[in-house]
Amino acid sequence: MAKLALCRNAMAFHYSMKSLRMVFLVLIALAVWPGAASEIPPRRQQSFDANWRFHRGDAPGAEESTFDDSAWRLLDLPHDWSIEDIPKTANDTPSSVGPFSPDSPGGTGTGYTLGGIGWYRKHFALEPGNANRLVSVLFDGVYMDADVWLNGHHLGNHPYGYTAFGFDLTPHLRPLGETNVLAVRVRNLGKNSRWYSGSGIYRHVTLTVTDPLHIPQWGVYVTTPKVTDTGATINVKTMMENGLGTTAPLAVQTRILGPNGRRIKTATSQASVEAGGKTEVSQAFEIPSPALWSPDTPRLYQAEVTLLLGSRAVDRVTATFGIREVRFGVQSGLTLNGKPLKLKGGCVHHDNGPLGAAAIDRAEERRVQLLKASGFNAIRTSHNPPSTAFLEACDRLGMLVIDEAFDCWERGKNPEDYHRFFKDWWERDLAAMVLRDRNHPSVILWSIGNEIPERAEPSGVAIAERLSGTVKQMDATRPVTAAICSFWDHPGWTWSNSVPAFSSLDVGGYNYLEGEYAGDHAKFPSRIMVGTESYPRAALACWNAVETDPWVLGDFVWTALDYLGEAGIGHSRLDNEPGGFGRSWPWFNAYCGDLDLCGFKKAQSLYRDVVWRQSPLEILVHTPLATGRTEHVSDWGWPDELPCWTWPGEEGKPLQVVVYSRCQTVRLELNGKEIATRTIGPDSKLAARFEVPYAPGELRAVGLTDRRQVASQTLQTADSPRRLRLLADRSTIRANRNDLCYVTAEITDDHGRLVPTAALSVRFSLSGPGELAAVGSANPKLPESFRGPTRTTFHGRGLAIVRPVGGPGTVLLQAEADGLKSAAVRIRIR
Has 784 been annotated as catalytic? Predict the structure, then answer.
């Protein structure tokens, strides 16, 4: 466990004491010199995202500081090269389009995108105020197998693509005023992922500058062991590290700031830290009438911790947290702040659709906003830790999180995946997740794995025990779970073989196994369960179990959002088309999400609105089927339904109409005439089905309960496409590279009605202090460039993403399409 102790305190940040001994003597003198007294330590952290040089491909010698990178591309992080267009070469496959190639090693798994090798180099000089201080760099995520050099010195390697890691730069820094070169080589080689991973430094990078007397990375840990409406206890543990050559007497001053930013409580503790050692101080605070954190009221506090050496502030760290009490019980279920809560959950991969894996803050925030607007209150970060920006958005917006560590342990699912590194790296990677994320109030469960091949074998049971125990050493405030699936990978095994897989879990995760809840509860009455994955079409059965049985905490659909890779697993097909798990080229999108790749609601999301009682009634129409053909829907799919009554060329032909509702009966009308009335009974799965000869006009569904109309919805036929419409999600954004404006492009008729059947090429152009960061549509099988100015609409819609460049001003985004009236929108950047 020696490695774990090192990870817990600094995540393997190594400091060379020999090279700093002279500096220590100077700092000791400064500490007692009256002129050095200060209440605010120098700036501790700064973004290290701007102005990196990038080269796609290998570049022998690029680790050396003298290497000439002047011809390399200049860019800002976060960055994902796999979402960019494939550079054109003489060996290009003719059918390659944008970032997609049918020759991709990852194939359908990674959505036919390419990885390879990439290099990043950053030139920087330290500011004068950073003399005689410790300097380290923190990467929040690099996919994958990253090697880092400073001025030609190899700092280390980090293979896992989803955990944060850092290095001490101090021993190899050049004198103040001289230029340093940080070089990073990223190797995303072979078949190493089951979904789109992206490639490169796709999350933020931070430079940290501290005194030798300092708080190490993730060294402040906040818990709320006692919470009521009238009062709460807050414990703040602070780890201190002494890089000096002599024992240092320190004072730890902690201020608790309320959601309004005002100071509530202050405490000061004394501690002595031995030379080269570490010491932890624990402080308790009693907070009267706390503002509790919950999905409905995501109120955040801060613990501002300052280290004082005499009168000099040598370090300061601010940790954001929420005051909330989460409890789990077989009979009480999940309670948050003493109130029962059912998890309306969705699984989410880490990509941001047209932006690829780039974890730009606004993109991470928007995903959470979209899911919250669709009724979700919980996310499972499948199957890896998310970005810090994503969890911060969950904290601010009020989204509960299952934070997941691994998709495999010692036995891999792909030849070059993480199983190659697991034995040597699991402790460090698990520590990186828990230590980084344990202050987030949004995180309520730790998951140690997903559908692990050896999950119920003796070796896997032993690994699970070590993982669970390690998590609880670092954070005992949250339960441990894992996603357990059936034994399709173990011929002859049945569900009864699963028992050992649950032995180290506080909450049992069930993937597509809602049919086992009742039987397992009878056999194991103390087991708490959660549906960690479920099929979209099982939404009602899964939710009925959640509502009925308190020991079933919630349900997490696969998936809440469409994602790149696992191409076409959510497909529907005709009976004369080939079957199979997914779809081959040109499919690149999983197409199994409640929301599509651009964030628009799909049919299954509208059904879930009814299941979750968020909508009383939804009306959908199946796309016309070829004569004599029937539809086959994949396990993760949904019938090809749309909220659309615009079907030119289908006049007089019967169309399948379905109305989803919790009303007792549903009446369907076409152009004011009743078609039929259907009863929604226990076996109908909240669906009333009709066959309607198509005629343009108005299709109206009316929901009745106790013979009284309680809901209605109407679909109207749109005329031919005539206009473009641009809808910006916000009219004003910040002059910051981490902000974005999402602009929806719609094809409408002359009356402003969306034409859902329109698939037209839209050309975007932009002027002002911004750039077109990406364009996209939700079409899962039309590979096009995400970076070019043109995109083909899907169901009448497309998306353009604007990113600020430079300072304030106004961006004008224009859209054109042949035969349509153009559109424009202005976006203010301030």
Answer: no
